[in-house]
Model the fold of this input.
Amino acid sequence: MIDITNMSNKTLVQEQYKNINNLKLRKGLHEKYGTNKVGLHKWMFDQYPFCSKMKVLELGSGRGELWEYYFENEELKGYDMDITLSDLSDGMVEHIRQSYSRERISVRKIDILDIPYENEAFDLIIANAMLYHVKDIDLALAEVRRVLKKNGVFYCSTSGENGMIQYLYRALDELGIPCNHESNISFSLQNGMQLLKKQFNKVERRDYEDALEIDVVEDYLEYIYSMASMQGLEQKYYSVLLDYFNSKKVNGYLHVPKEYGIFVAGEEYLR
Done:
């Protein structure tokens, strides 16, 4: 039986991201089959209000690939910003250090529940696809608010409650494959605004319109088996899932819904 309810959020995060290849595999599926050709990372990067001498902190940077757009842009590099990338995973921190060893950035291991900076230290804080991993979301957001300047802005992306993972859970339930899973996401597009408004006066939601149109179902199954939350999914179910998802194709494609977006939060104004 797949049982993610007995795994702590911290354990899931560590399992999910300790292997760089798993992260690359999941990113590759979205790049290959996503219907929004702008690309999620490019879309997110274009949202950020960068300006000269800005102090920036990213929490949960993963492989740090979001910043490829920054280092390829000579105009942005001319802003001379103070950038700190961070992650809870030692493996990801080391990967970022190696990837951007020639760039002027700081890289640290940081737990969002205990951010090691003084009050009002940053102009811009970014947290992508990580808040739903956090055990104490209220404490995490209070920490972000503490280290964000009064005129600073917090950008956090997350998934919704009608996206890829829910589609998968419905399939497992329909097939009778044992899977204990929680029905709600701790920080989602549906509840994120309410949670953020406990700490910030102004909150705005921006949606990224996308879906997956998959013709090679084996790629989707490889994605599924790479997920930490699916680590208990037995190999004997592979052929069952393959037949099931192939049967769901319309005009040769499996449609997998995605629900994703960004919240922009601040104390005084949003940018």
About this structure: The chain has one domain: 2-266. Residues 2-266 form a domain with the Rossmann fold fold (CATH 3.40.50.150). The first strand starts at residue 2 and ends at 3.
